[in-house]
Design a protein that fits this description.
The protein is built from 14 helices and 5 strands. It has helices at about 5-10, 25-40, 50-55, 60-80, 95-105, 110-115, 115-125, 130-145, 160-175, 220-230, 245-260, 265-270, 275-300, 305-335, and strands at about 15-20, 45-50, 85-90, 150-155, 185. It is globular. The chain binds adenosine-5'-triphosphate (ATP) and L-tryptophanamide.
Protein backbone atom coordinates (compact mmCIF):
# COMPACT_ATOMS: atom_id res chain seq x y z
CA UNK A 1 0.00 0.00 0.00
CA UNK A 2 1.44 3.40 -0.95
CA UNK A 3 1.98 5.94 1.77
CA UNK A 4 -0.64 8.13 0.20
CA UNK A 5 -3.29 5.40 0.31
CA UNK A 6 -2.38 4.56 3.89
CA UNK A 7 -2.73 8.19 4.84
CA UNK A 8 -6.08 8.59 3.14
CA UNK A 9 -7.33 5.47 4.87
CA UNK A 10 -6.32 6.76 8.27
CA UNK A 11 -9.33 7.98 10.25
CA UNK A 12 -9.56 11.74 10.00
CA UNK A 13 -9.67 13.40 13.40
CA UNK A 14 -13.04 14.75 14.47
CA UNK A 15 -13.57 18.41 15.37
CA UNK A 16 -16.63 19.66 17.24
CA UNK A 17 -17.52 23.22 18.14
CA UNK A 18 -20.58 25.40 18.64
CA UNK A 19 -21.54 29.03 19.09
CA UNK A 20 -24.60 30.51 20.76
CA UNK A 21 -26.98 32.42 18.48
CA UNK A 22 -27.40 35.24 20.97
CA UNK A 23 -26.98 38.76 19.62
CA UNK A 24 -24.69 39.62 16.80
CA UNK A 25 -21.43 37.70 16.23
CA UNK A 26 -18.40 39.75 17.23
CA UNK A 27 -14.82 40.12 16.13
CA UNK A 28 -13.95 38.18 19.33
CA UNK A 29 -16.00 35.18 18.21
CA UNK A 30 -14.53 35.47 14.72
CA UNK A 31 -10.86 35.67 15.74
CA UNK A 32 -11.12 33.41 18.79
CA UNK A 33 -13.10 30.59 17.23
CA UNK A 34 -14.60 30.96 13.76
CA UNK A 35 -11.36 31.55 11.83
CA UNK A 36 -10.12 28.22 13.13
CA UNK A 37 -13.42 26.50 12.28
CA UNK A 38 -12.89 27.46 8.64
CA UNK A 39 -9.21 26.50 8.48
CA UNK A 40 -9.74 23.10 10.12
CA UNK A 41 -12.26 22.00 7.50
CA UNK A 42 -9.45 21.18 5.07
CA UNK A 43 -7.87 18.45 7.17
CA UNK A 44 -10.47 17.27 9.66
CA UNK A 45 -13.91 15.86 9.91
CA UNK A 46 -15.67 18.97 11.25
CA UNK A 47 -19.01 19.10 13.04
CA UNK A 48 -20.38 22.53 13.95
CA UNK A 49 -23.59 23.64 15.64
CA UNK A 50 -25.58 26.68 16.66
CA UNK A 51 -26.11 26.16 20.39
CA UNK A 52 -29.71 27.36 20.69
CA UNK A 53 -30.35 25.11 23.72
CA UNK A 54 -27.48 26.84 25.51
CA UNK A 55 -28.82 30.25 24.51
CA UNK A 56 -32.05 29.90 26.52
CA UNK A 57 -30.09 29.78 29.79
CA UNK A 58 -30.53 33.54 29.40
CA UNK A 59 -34.02 34.84 28.58
CA UNK A 60 -34.49 35.41 24.82
CA UNK A 61 -37.22 37.43 23.13
CA UNK A 62 -38.83 34.86 20.71
CA UNK A 63 -38.97 36.88 17.45
CA UNK A 64 -35.50 38.29 17.97
CA UNK A 65 -34.13 34.89 18.95
CA UNK A 66 -35.44 33.28 15.74
CA UNK A 67 -33.97 36.12 13.66
CA UNK A 68 -30.63 35.72 15.45
CA UNK A 69 -30.56 32.01 14.64
CA UNK A 70 -31.07 32.65 10.91
CA UNK A 71 -28.55 35.47 11.02
CA UNK A 72 -25.92 33.38 12.77
CA UNK A 73 -26.45 30.46 10.37
CA UNK A 74 -26.10 32.67 7.28
CA UNK A 75 -23.13 34.50 8.78
CA UNK A 76 -21.23 31.31 9.49
CA UNK A 77 -21.79 30.12 5.92
CA UNK A 78 -20.51 33.53 4.83
CA UNK A 79 -17.41 33.12 7.00
CA UNK A 80 -16.67 29.92 5.11
CA UNK A 81 -18.35 27.02 6.92
CA UNK A 82 -18.87 24.66 3.99
CA UNK A 83 -21.68 22.13 4.29
CA UNK A 84 -20.14 20.06 1.49
CA UNK A 85 -17.15 19.40 3.72
CA UNK A 86 -18.57 19.70 7.24
CA UNK A 87 -21.79 19.28 9.19
CA UNK A 88 -23.41 22.47 10.42
CA UNK A 89 -26.73 22.12 12.23
CA UNK A 90 -28.96 23.68 14.86
CA UNK A 91 -28.47 21.96 18.24
CA UNK A 92 -32.17 21.59 19.11
CA UNK A 93 -32.78 19.74 15.81
CA UNK A 94 -30.66 16.82 17.02
CA UNK A 95 -32.46 15.18 19.92
CA UNK A 96 -29.47 13.25 21.28
CA UNK A 97 -27.91 16.44 22.72
CA UNK A 98 -30.61 17.00 25.32
CA UNK A 99 -30.80 13.27 26.04
CA UNK A 100 -27.11 12.78 26.75
CA UNK A 101 -27.01 16.08 28.65
CA UNK A 102 -29.50 14.72 31.18
CA UNK A 103 -27.41 11.61 31.66
CA UNK A 104 -24.17 13.58 32.07
CA UNK A 105 -25.86 15.86 34.60
CA UNK A 106 -25.92 12.81 36.85
CA UNK A 107 -22.16 12.37 36.46
CA UNK A 108 -21.28 16.01 37.14
CA UNK A 109 -20.76 17.30 40.65
CA UNK A 110 -22.42 20.36 42.19
CA UNK A 111 -18.99 21.53 43.40
CA UNK A 112 -17.49 21.35 39.91
CA UNK A 113 -20.29 23.41 38.40
CA UNK A 114 -20.08 25.97 41.21
CA UNK A 115 -16.49 26.74 40.26
CA UNK A 116 -17.26 27.72 36.64
CA UNK A 117 -16.36 31.36 36.01
CA UNK A 118 -18.97 31.72 33.27
CA UNK A 119 -21.69 30.65 35.72
CA UNK A 120 -20.43 33.12 38.31
CA UNK A 121 -20.25 35.95 35.74
CA UNK A 122 -23.62 35.25 34.17
CA UNK A 123 -25.44 34.74 37.46
CA UNK A 124 -24.10 38.07 38.67
CA UNK A 125 -25.26 39.71 35.43
CA UNK A 126 -28.69 38.05 35.38
CA UNK A 127 -29.39 37.93 39.10
CA UNK A 128 -33.15 37.85 38.47
CA UNK A 129 -32.90 34.57 36.53
CA UNK A 130 -30.30 32.19 37.97
CA UNK A 131 -31.95 29.11 36.51
CA UNK A 132 -30.84 25.47 36.78
CA UNK A 133 -29.93 25.43 33.07
CA UNK A 134 -27.41 28.22 33.57
CA UNK A 135 -25.81 26.12 36.29
CA UNK A 136 -25.73 22.81 34.37
CA UNK A 137 -24.77 24.48 31.06
CA UNK A 138 -21.36 22.68 30.99
CA UNK A 139 -23.00 19.21 31.12
CA UNK A 140 -24.89 20.06 27.90
CA UNK A 141 -21.66 21.33 26.38
CA UNK A 142 -19.94 18.07 27.36
CA UNK A 143 -22.78 16.12 25.70
CA UNK A 144 -22.35 18.15 22.48
CA UNK A 145 -18.70 17.24 22.28
CA UNK A 146 -18.72 13.66 23.56
CA UNK A 147 -21.59 12.52 21.31
CA UNK A 148 -19.30 12.81 18.28
CA UNK A 149 -16.19 11.29 19.88
CA UNK A 150 -14.47 14.59 19.05
CA UNK A 151 -10.68 14.76 19.18
CA UNK A 152 -10.37 18.54 19.12
CA UNK A 153 -12.55 21.47 20.12
CA UNK A 154 -11.66 24.88 18.60
CA UNK A 155 -12.78 27.61 21.02
CA UNK A 156 -11.57 30.89 22.50
CA UNK A 157 -9.62 30.90 25.78
CA UNK A 158 -12.76 31.66 27.84
CA UNK A 159 -14.03 28.11 27.21
CA UNK A 160 -10.92 26.37 28.60
CA UNK A 161 -12.54 25.68 31.96
CA UNK A 162 -15.62 24.10 30.34
CA UNK A 163 -13.39 21.89 28.22
CA UNK A 164 -11.46 20.75 31.25
CA UNK A 165 -14.75 19.82 32.91
CA UNK A 166 -15.81 17.93 29.75
CA UNK A 167 -12.60 15.91 29.97
CA UNK A 168 -13.23 15.16 33.66
CA UNK A 169 -16.79 14.02 32.97
CA UNK A 170 -15.61 11.76 30.12
CA UNK A 171 -12.84 10.26 32.24
CA UNK A 172 -15.20 9.70 35.15
CA UNK A 173 -17.77 7.98 32.95
CA UNK A 174 -15.11 5.86 31.21
CA UNK A 175 -13.66 4.98 34.63
CA UNK A 176 -16.99 3.46 35.69
CA UNK A 177 -18.15 1.84 32.44
CA UNK A 178 -15.08 1.32 30.23
CA UNK A 179 -14.22 3.25 27.10
CA UNK A 180 -17.38 5.01 26.01
CA UNK A 181 -16.18 8.55 25.24
CA UNK A 182 -13.11 9.92 23.51
CA UNK A 183 -11.43 12.45 25.86
CA UNK A 184 -11.12 15.64 23.72
CA UNK A 185 -8.43 18.32 23.60
CA UNK A 186 -8.96 22.04 23.19
CA UNK A 187 -7.68 23.92 20.14
CA UNK A 188 -7.09 27.52 21.10
CA UNK A 189 -5.46 30.01 18.67
CA UNK A 190 -2.17 31.76 19.51
CA UNK A 191 -3.47 35.23 18.64
CA UNK A 192 -7.09 36.30 18.97
CA UNK A 193 -7.91 33.73 21.66
CA UNK A 194 -9.08 36.45 24.03
CA UNK A 195 -10.20 39.63 22.32
CA UNK A 196 -11.01 42.22 24.96
CA UNK A 197 -13.71 44.88 25.17
CA UNK A 198 -12.76 48.11 23.36
CA UNK A 199 -14.21 50.14 26.24
CA UNK A 200 -13.08 48.09 29.26
CA UNK A 201 -10.04 46.20 28.01
CA UNK A 202 -9.75 44.12 31.18
CA UNK A 203 -13.05 42.39 30.24
CA UNK A 204 -13.58 40.03 27.30
CA UNK A 205 -15.35 41.35 24.20
CA UNK A 206 -18.85 39.90 24.45
CA UNK A 207 -21.81 40.00 22.10
CA UNK A 208 -24.19 40.38 25.01
CA UNK A 209 -22.49 43.57 26.28
CA UNK A 210 -24.94 46.44 26.63
CA UNK A 211 -22.41 48.99 25.41
CA UNK A 212 -22.29 48.56 21.62
CA UNK A 213 -19.01 50.51 21.47
CA UNK A 214 -17.34 47.73 23.46
CA UNK A 215 -17.47 45.27 20.58
CA UNK A 216 -17.08 45.18 16.82
CA UNK A 217 -19.75 43.07 15.17
CA UNK A 218 -18.76 41.10 12.09
CA UNK A 219 -21.69 42.80 10.33
CA UNK A 220 -20.88 46.37 11.44
CA UNK A 221 -20.60 48.80 8.52
CA UNK A 222 -17.03 49.97 7.68
CA UNK A 223 -17.62 53.48 9.03
CA UNK A 224 -18.98 52.06 12.30
CA UNK A 225 -15.94 49.78 12.67
CA UNK A 226 -13.59 52.73 12.11
CA UNK A 227 -15.48 54.83 14.67
CA UNK A 228 -15.41 52.08 17.31
CA UNK A 229 -11.65 51.61 16.94
CA UNK A 230 -11.06 55.38 17.09
CA UNK A 231 -13.00 55.46 20.37
CA UNK A 232 -11.18 52.45 21.82
CA UNK A 233 -9.80 53.03 25.32
CA UNK A 234 -5.98 53.13 25.46
CA UNK A 235 -3.49 54.76 27.87
CA UNK A 236 -1.63 58.04 28.10
CA UNK A 237 1.76 56.74 26.98
CA UNK A 238 1.21 57.18 23.23
CA UNK A 239 3.72 54.48 22.30
CA UNK A 240 2.68 51.34 20.38
CA UNK A 241 4.44 48.77 22.54
CA UNK A 242 3.16 45.58 24.17
CA UNK A 243 3.45 45.72 27.95
CA UNK A 244 2.02 45.43 31.42
CA UNK A 245 -0.70 47.91 32.35
CA UNK A 246 -1.42 48.59 28.66
CA UNK A 247 -4.52 46.43 28.28
CA UNK A 248 -6.08 48.61 25.59
CA UNK A 249 -2.99 48.72 23.35
CA UNK A 250 -2.21 45.05 23.99
CA UNK A 251 -5.72 44.22 22.81
CA UNK A 252 -5.44 46.33 19.64
CA UNK A 253 -2.05 44.75 18.91
CA UNK A 254 -3.59 41.30 19.40
CA UNK A 255 -6.37 42.10 16.95
CA UNK A 256 -3.98 43.60 14.38
CA UNK A 257 -1.69 40.59 14.70
CA UNK A 258 -4.54 38.07 14.35
CA UNK A 259 -5.82 39.83 11.22
CA UNK A 260 -2.54 40.62 9.44
CA UNK A 261 -0.39 37.73 10.69
CA UNK A 262 2.31 40.24 11.81
CA UNK A 263 4.23 39.57 15.04
CA UNK A 264 4.24 42.05 17.94
CA UNK A 265 7.84 43.06 17.12
CA UNK A 266 6.89 43.78 13.51
CA UNK A 267 3.94 45.87 14.69
CA UNK A 268 6.08 47.84 17.15
CA UNK A 269 8.55 48.59 14.37
CA UNK A 270 5.82 49.57 11.90
CA UNK A 271 4.42 52.17 14.32
CA UNK A 272 7.67 53.45 15.80
CA UNK A 273 7.40 57.21 16.27
CA UNK A 274 3.72 57.20 15.36
CA UNK A 275 0.83 57.97 17.69
CA UNK A 276 -2.17 55.95 18.76
CA UNK A 277 -4.37 57.72 16.21
CA UNK A 278 -2.42 56.26 13.27
CA UNK A 279 -2.35 52.85 14.88
CA UNK A 280 -6.10 52.79 15.56
CA UNK A 281 -6.78 53.77 11.93
CA UNK A 282 -4.56 50.95 10.69
CA UNK A 283 -6.26 48.39 12.95
CA UNK A 284 -9.70 49.60 11.84
CA UNK A 285 -8.77 49.42 8.15
CA UNK A 286 -7.30 45.93 8.47
CA UNK A 287 -10.46 44.70 10.20
CA UNK A 288 -12.72 46.34 7.59
CA UNK A 289 -10.81 44.61 4.77
CA UNK A 290 -10.91 41.25 6.57
CA UNK A 291 -14.67 41.45 7.06
CA UNK A 292 -15.67 42.97 3.69
CA UNK A 293 -15.96 39.66 1.75
CA UNK A 294 -17.80 38.02 4.67
CA UNK A 295 -20.37 40.83 4.71
CA UNK A 296 -20.86 40.57 0.95
CA UNK A 297 -21.52 36.82 1.08
CA UNK A 298 -23.80 37.24 4.12
CA UNK A 299 -26.11 39.61 2.23
CA UNK A 300 -26.69 36.84 -0.35
CA UNK A 301 -27.21 33.94 2.10
CA UNK A 302 -29.63 35.75 4.41
CA UNK A 303 -32.05 36.32 1.51
CA UNK A 304 -32.31 32.59 0.78
CA UNK A 305 -34.14 30.93 3.71
CA UNK A 306 -34.92 27.85 1.57
CA UNK A 307 -31.22 27.25 1.00
CA UNK A 308 -30.42 27.73 4.71
CA UNK A 309 -33.13 25.18 5.58
CA UNK A 310 -31.78 22.68 3.09
CA UNK A 311 -28.31 22.98 4.66
CA UNK A 312 -29.29 22.69 8.31
CA UNK A 313 -31.77 19.88 7.75
CA UNK A 314 -29.30 17.74 5.81
CA UNK A 315 -26.60 18.22 8.45
CA UNK A 316 -28.99 17.50 11.34
CA UNK A 317 -30.07 14.19 9.81
CA UNK A 318 -26.50 12.97 9.55
CA UNK A 319 -25.59 14.31 13.00
CA UNK A 320 -28.55 12.48 14.54
CA UNK A 321 -27.30 9.17 13.13
CA UNK A 322 -23.69 9.61 14.21
CA UNK A 323 -24.57 10.81 17.71
CA UNK A 324 -27.20 8.10 18.26
CA UNK A 325 -24.42 5.50 18.18
CA UNK A 326 -22.66 7.09 21.15
CA UNK A 327 -25.91 7.63 23.03
CA UNK A 328 -26.87 3.97 22.56
CA UNK A 329 -23.49 2.88 23.84
CA UNK A 330 -23.81 5.01 26.98
CA UNK A 331 -27.41 3.96 27.63
CA UNK A 332 -26.50 0.28 27.36
CA UNK A 333 -23.54 0.61 29.73
CA UNK A 334 -25.61 2.39 32.37
CA UNK A 335 -28.05 -0.52 32.49
CA UNK A 336 -31.19 0.98 31.00
CA UNK A 337 -33.47 -1.53 29.28
CA UNK A 338 -33.12 -0.86 25.53
CA UNK A 339 -36.19 -0.06 23.42
P1 LIG B 1 -22.16 35.74 25.28
O1 LIG B 1 -21.70 37.14 25.39
O2 LIG B 1 -23.60 35.60 24.88
O3 LIG B 1 -21.77 34.88 26.42
P2 LIG B 1 -19.91 35.17 23.62
O4 LIG B 1 -19.62 36.39 22.80
O5 LIG B 1 -19.02 34.86 24.75
O6 LIG B 1 -21.43 35.16 24.03
P3 LIG B 1 -20.17 32.42 22.72
O7 LIG B 1 -21.27 31.96 21.83
O8 LIG B 1 -20.28 32.09 24.14
O9 LIG B 1 -19.94 33.98 22.56
O10 LIG B 1 -18.79 31.90 22.13
C1 LIG B 1 -18.55 31.49 20.80
C2 LIG B 1 -17.08 31.26 20.58
O11 LIG B 1 -16.40 32.50 20.56
C3 LIG B 1 -16.41 30.43 21.70
O12 LIG B 1 -15.49 29.54 21.13
C4 LIG B 1 -15.70 31.46 22.52
O13 LIG B 1 -14.57 30.92 23.16
C5 LIG B 1 -15.31 32.48 21.48
N1 LIG B 1 -15.20 33.80 22.07
C6 LIG B 1 -16.20 34.50 22.68
N2 LIG B 1 -15.77 35.70 23.08
C7 LIG B 1 -14.46 35.76 22.72
C8 LIG B 1 -13.45 36.76 22.86
N3 LIG B 1 -13.69 37.92 23.44
N4 LIG B 1 -12.22 36.50 22.36
C9 LIG B 1 -11.96 35.34 21.75
N5 LIG B 1 -12.85 34.34 21.60
C10 LIG B 1 -14.09 34.55 22.06
N1 LIG C 1 -20.30 27.28 25.54
C1 LIG C 1 -19.76 27.62 24.26
C2 LIG C 1 -20.69 27.31 23.13
C3 LIG C 1 -20.74 25.85 23.01
C4 LIG C 1 -19.67 25.00 22.63
C5 LIG C 1 -20.21 23.68 22.71
C6 LIG C 1 -18.35 25.21 22.26
C7 LIG C 1 -21.83 25.08 23.29
N2 LIG C 1 -21.51 23.78 23.08
C8 LIG C 1 -19.43 22.59 22.38
C9 LIG C 1 -17.57 24.09 21.95
C10 LIG C 1 -18.11 22.81 22.02
C11 LIG C 1 -19.40 29.05 24.22
O1 LIG C 1 -18.73 29.37 23.35
N3 LIG C 1 -19.82 29.85 25.10
Amino acid sequence: MSEQTAQSQERKKVIFSAIQPTGTITLGNYLGALKNWIKLQEDFNCIYALADLHAITVRQEPAKFRANIYEAYALLLACGVDVEKSLFFIQSHVSTHAQLAWILNCYTQFGELSRMTQFKDKSAKHSDNINAGLFTYPALMAADILLYQADLVPVGADQKQHLELTRNIAERFNGIYGNVFKVPDGYIPKTGARVMSLQEPAKKMSKSDENINSYVAVLDKPEVIMKKFKRAVTDSEACVKYGEGKDGINNLMGIYSAVTGKTYEEIEKEFEGKGYGDFKTAVGEAVVEELRPVQERFSQFIKDKAYLKECYEKSAQIAEKISQRTLDKAVKKIGFVLK
